[in-house]
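Incident log, support desk, overnight shift.

02:14 A customer reports that sequence design results differ from what the structure should imply. Their input is reproduced verbatim below. On-call engineer (initials T.W.) acknowledged and began investigating.
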């Protein structure tokens, strides 16, 4: 199959203990929010 899936990985770190990982695969965006308690994932 010649379908090229475009994937984007973006990691944002702030001064607080929150790391935001933004992953975009094709037209689907996942956003992982890493808090001090655990992970939070949501679809954009």
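02:41 Re-run completed on a clean worker. Output:
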């Amino acid at each position: 199959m010649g379908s090229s899936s475009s994937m984007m990985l973006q990691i944002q770190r702030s001064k607080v203990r929150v790391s935001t990982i933004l992953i975009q695969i094709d037209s689907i965006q996942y956003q992982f929010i890493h808090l001090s308690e655990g992970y939070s994932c949501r679809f954009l």
